[in-house]
């Protein structure tokens, strides 16, 4: 098997299962927004969640950076249109 | 950003009569623990206990006036009260940067207030945003 393909497969196996990541992100939303009823999906956008305003967005980004021990760049977070794109960005950091 | 992890800050505060009476005047919290010497002693304290939220006022002053930039806004803060504060207590405020979040221009601090006996009277964390 070519080395590059092996590396990609190894990387995918090492990475967190997307379903598990979504579950963890959902917990972060619950804690940050202090709302036990929140259920986020990959297609969830800010306007779909009560209280997901600009300040809450900052708190969410900080909580996600802390939880996954990663750092985002400002241009990265500006490109997110929904939770799925947030997850893509997290996965791009090797999580 | 102007801050970096492990930056430390110190400030000295005194809970004087003007601050104590000003707090009561503004917020009307006349609970006997804060205003009745005998009541406070009966509850096991050495005298009337200063309002814990006076310390939040000191925290506000520190963030608004003493950080190296005025371009700040408070995102969140938390405080735990550990020991009573009495009139004219001198409090040492200590703060340290514990997190930097460049993507959202946020800085997280931990802090405490200690009295002259080196007892922590309150501690907590706060997060600020650096605004343009």
TrEMBL record, chain B:
Any one Pfam family match given in the protein's UniProt record, by short name: MaoC_dehydratas
SUPFAM superfamilies documented for this protein: Thioesterase/thiol ester dehydrase-isomerase
Gene3D superfamilies reported for this sequence: Hotdog Thioesterase (3.10.129.10)
InterPro entries per UniProt: HotDog_dom_sf (IPR029069), MaoC-like_dom (IPR002539), UPF0336/Enoyl-CoA_hydratase (IPR050965)
Annotated ranges, domain MaoC-like: 16-105
Name the record gives this protein: MaoC-like domain-containing protein
Higher taxonomy: Bacteria, Pseudomonadati, Bacteroidota, Flavobacteriia, Flavobacteriales
